[in-house]
Structure formats: C-alpha cells, structure tokens
Amino acid sequence: MESVELKKEAENLSDSKIMTGSRDINLWLDGGYERGIITLFYGPAASGKSNFVTLAACHLAKKDKKVVFIDTEGSFSVDRVRQISGGIPEMILKNIVILKPTNFYEQKKSFLKLLKEYKSKNIGLIIVDSMVMFYRLELAEARKRGIDEVRRINNELANQMRSLYEIARKGDVPILITTQVYNDFLNEAEWLSGKEAGVNVVGGDILKYWSKCIIELKNKNGRKKAILQKHRSLPALEFNFEICNEGIRKRGWI
C-alpha cells in the first residue's frame, strides 16, 4: 500500500515540476523547476546563469519536448550542448527553437507570438537569456529624455513579463529567465570603512513581482553558490556547485 502511495506522489510531482538536468539541483529544489510559473535567475557574469537554463533546455529536449530559447545575449552555445549531450547534440537541437531578437521591441513581438501559439506548438519549456539585455539599453536612452520615457520603458518591461506570466499560467509551462546585476556606488568614506557594495537586480521589482521562484547566483574566487531567495513551498536554501562537462553538480566548498 505504501509503495502505491509513493508512486502516486512521484507522479504528482512529475506533473507539477520539470527536472533540471542535474540530480543535485533536483534534490535541492525538491524535484525541479515548477510548471506554471516564472523562475528568475540573477547574478554577476560567470556565475552560472546560462549554464542553469541551458542544462534544463537540454534535458527537456532530450525527452522529446519542444523548448523555446530566446537568446538576447548570444549565450546559447552548441559546443556546450555537445558537452552536456556527450557529443551527440543533434537529438537535442532538433527540439530547441532558438529566437534571436535584436532589440526590445522584437523581444516584445516574440512574447506576443508565443502567447498566441504556445498551445499549438506543444511547448514544454520557455527560456529567456537574458530578459534585460535590450531593456537596459532602452532605459539608458530613456533617461536622457526624461522621467516619462523611463516610465514608458518600465511599463513595457512589465507588459512583457505579464505576457510570459500568462503563458506560464494558462499553458502550465515552466519559464526560466535570467537577468544581470549591478553594484551600488560607494563613496570614498564607505569604501575605506570596509562597507560592501549592495547587489541590485536589473529590472528589479518588475521582474521579482512576476517571478514566483527567484534564485540568486554568486561566484566568489571561482566558488559558485546558488541561493533560493523566493519559493512558494521551500525555505531559503543554499547550494554550492561547480560546472562540469556534463552540467552542474554539488560541491562541498571548505
């Protein structure tokens, strides 16, 4: 009787989550990434953001699920897919649709198109790496033109996040997005006192509001760490990891 109940529990879990491509990450997240929500990764360059999302894409594609990868930074690497797949990327790449918008408004069109087609395309996962590449460029120009332009660009980012959220909720599709970070500027007195600069998320509250799972990634002297900052059912948890040819694995830093 107990084995039947455990089997049903496992089936329910597989219905509500997708596996990450890493056994260690699956265990850390109690089964994987949740369906029907947006999961946000943020962290500095070389902290592992693209590796997390590429690993998930490879795993789903290998299971013959359609993956849409919106690549705004040129981060998608066939060589990395080849490493993860053990040198046979063809079976994975045939199930990954790569979209390459070249500006903020092409990015918007990509989301609106997905909003219309996600049912007919049988999409198993959507990835945006990163969500803020073009937003950051538009925001820099908007600041030259005044506060109204800044509000307009922020409203556009919010509308794009709303479109993704609608796809996630209505289609029960897991969506993984990445964003960049920047540090607070310290004056000389603060720097001399040893104060550390705070880390700010590009897109800030707009991205955090629409994301039900938020994972911070850190890289200190080559030692990488993931911190679960927000989750609907799990407490704040840390995960020390390293990037290897096969993907990502747990590492016990001393």
Overview of this protein structure:
By secondary structure, the protein is of the alpha/beta class. It has a single domain, classed as P-loop containing nucleotide triphosphate hydrolases (Rossmann fold), CATH 3.40.50. The chain is built from ten helices and 13 strands. The protein has a nine-stranded mixed beta sheet, with helices on both faces. The chain has a two-stranded antiparallel ribbon with strand order 1-2. It has a two-stranded antiparallel sheet with strand order 8-9. β11 and β12 form a beta hairpin. The radius of gyration is 19 Å and the shape is globular. It starts with a helix and ends with a strand.
Task: State the main characteristics.
254 residues, alpha/beta, Rossmann fold, 9-stranded mixed β-sheet, two-stranded antiparallel sheet, 10 helices, 44% helix, 26% strand
Strand order of the largest sheet: 5-4-6-7-3-10-11-12-13
The succession of helices and strands, N to C, reads: HEHEEHEHHEHEHHEEHEHEEEE
- What is the fold-level CATH name, i.e. the topology? Rossmann fold
The whole-angstrom Rg is: 19 Å
Give helix % range.
40-55%
Structural class determined from secondary elements: alpha/beta
Q: Give the overall pLDDT as a whole number.
A: 89
